[in-house]
Amino acid sequence: MSSSQPRIAIVGGGPAGLTTGLLLHKRGVPFTIFELRQKPTDEELAKPSGMLDLHEESGIAALKECGLFDEILQITGDCSEAQKVSDKNGNILHTDDGDISQRPEISRHALSKLLSSHIPADQIRWGYKLLAATKSMASGSGLTEIQLDFGPRGKQTFDLVIGADGAWSKVRNLLSDTKPYYAGTQNITLTIREVTKKYPHLSELVGLGSFAALGDRHGVMSQRGPQDSARIYIFLTIKDEHYATTLAGQTALAAKERVLGDVELLSTWGTAIKELVTIACDEEVADNPGNAVDIHPMYVLPVGNAWEHKIGATVIGDAAHLMGPWAGEGVNLAMWDSQLLAHAIIKAYETETARKDAASFQSVLDPLIEAFEVDMVARAQEKAEESSSNGQMLFGEDGATAFAEFFRQAYAGAISGEST
Description:
Keywords: FAD, Flavoprotein, Monooxygenase, Oxidoreductase
Strand order of the largest sheet: 5-4-13-14-15-12-16
GO molecular function: FAD binding; monooxygenase activity
CATH topology of the largest domain: FAD/NAD(P)-binding domain
CATH superfamily of the largest domain: FAD/NAD(P)-binding domain
Number of helices: 14
Number of strands: 17
Helix content: 40-55%
Organism: Venustampulla echinocandica
Radius of gyration: 23 Å
InterPro entries: FAD-bd (IPR002938), FAD/NAD-bd_sf (IPR036188)
Protein name: Tetracycline resistance protein from transposon
Structural class: alpha/beta
Number of domains: 2
Shape: elongated
Strand content: 15-25%
């Protein structure tokens, strides 16, 4: 019988891994987070990044349990809940002030900084790239051990490994052979800083919240963010999964010429949207001279992705249920996963024998994690179906009209609900 404390590893230091770690820390459960990236500087974390809208039942609930909700409210406000929809020529089909939504927006960088600041520094290992995870039985103890191979940084062994390591999760390989598949969309990400000061007419076009210009199965979208920025996302429906490699190493100027010069992409779009793309590409090059354009194919896991439960390892967030961003659920689901998984781990750990003995901990925890996984798969399937349906709406032949109608119905439903 083992006499050691349980050894818990969380692979991945994004919102899912950090939320899990913080919830465990608050209850005195030992763990170590391993993150691929080097520790970001405050300057890097201040840069514009993607905005996340937090949902009451998931992201907000997890943050409240972390004791951080009041702090979160102090660092939101860069992006409002206002929405604008236009066709490919920049004709506005819908606009609102976001008054039926109560979902605070926070930048991904700000969320990560806040979560990590409440976790002891020695429990986050930065710059650890997981190469492989393997499972074995500890001799004579009945204990399942998971060995993590970090290449030149060595190998370490754990009794529980939580894969919060994203789309191409190495931990998921312990549970399933399923891999993400290409969703048919390429995404280019660009940033215009100080957009109100430099380009007031573009600031007026995209508004203070989210903006979507849609048509021909493509989309040019914007979210406002830190430093008075507009984060521009160009979504291109392209059959060639490897399209991004044709721009490998090239700057946003090359991407601008390619995208705006191709009749199958944005060359037939109107002046207003083409100007938005042009300036976004130019600003990106001015801010990051010589850097390669940020373009990548988008991948998803099968809707309802599930696996046969195995002792000693589990996955959460994108590692478990990677989906498109079209339902705004990715980080919220991930933090919901974190909260419920943390509950299971804490319940097992606080069993008297489990706190002192790894084999006992694993025995008590295993059925709790199996039940957690069943629940997670069901929750994720519902959101993945919603995301898939929304993606088909946005990138249909007339996505702009369909999206404007979506908001019209949402507002009609809200008004009807208030009047009953």
